[in-house]
Amino acid sequence: DVQTALRNSFPYAKMYGLAQQFAITVTATAEDMPEIKKMVAELDRPKKMYRVTYNVSDVENGKRTGTQHYSIVVAAGGRGMLKEGKRVPLVTGFMGDKMDSGQTSQVQYIDVGEMIEASINGQGLKTKVELTTVADEKSGIGVQDPVSAQTMLENMSSFTVIMPVLLGAVDVPGTMRHQEIEVTTELLTQ
Question: How many CA atoms within 13 Å lie on the side-chain side of 12?
């Protein structure tokens, strides 16, 4: 964007962008160079950086029994993602002759654990929280096939720095528990 603004303002200057280095080289007259430097200084400002902390709390009978904390650093106008968990094998088929002992299984993997995405635009925070676990029950299809339990929250909210915001709560099926998902955003750089 800075390079485009320079090209539009100084059509006789030569500019080349070096995307890997986040740099622009400029060849211009001695008279244009101070104005080019001034424009670059005005346009090339660092983005605000935020630490976005998600607290996922288990609540039973009105009391918190445990809380997991996840933090992501996100630039204003940018996106951050955190993924933590395991990959669970799932047999999807078999190859080879049943009579032959050389039969091999086809396996796919499913992700279980936590996946959190956050993006900040202005005072808006877009969030996607996905919590997946392997349930205790077994699938009726195959003896080895796991059943996964999943909770997903997708939300767009406004935020005030340092003030926690409750994004949502969900009951855990078959129990007297529920989970609350709360987010706190703090400014790291101006």
Answer: 6
DSSP state at residue 39? H
Alpha carbon distance 85, 132 (integer Å): 9
Helix (H) or strand (E) holding 18: strand 14-18
pLDDT digits (tens, 9 = 90+) for 100-154: 566 677 788 888 889 999 999 888 899 999 888 887 766 556 556 677 778 888 9
56, β-bridge pairs: 68, 181
- Rounded CA gap, 33 and 158, in Å? 42
CB of 174 within 8 A of CB of 149?
Answer: no
Which contiguous run of DSSP H or E holds residue 8?
A: helix 2-9
Burial of 74 (0-12, 13-18, 19+ CB in 10 A): buried
Bridge partners (DSSP) listed for residue 59 = 64, 178
Q: Which of 48, 56, 177, 186 is nearest to 114 (CA)?
A: 56
Give, in order, the Cα–Cα distances in Å from 72 to each of 15, 55, 75.
35, 12, 10
Instruction: Classify residue 20 by its DSSP letter.
Output: G
Structure tokens at 30: 């001695």
The pTM of the full predicted model, rounded to 2 decimals, is 0.68
DSSP state letter for 21:
G
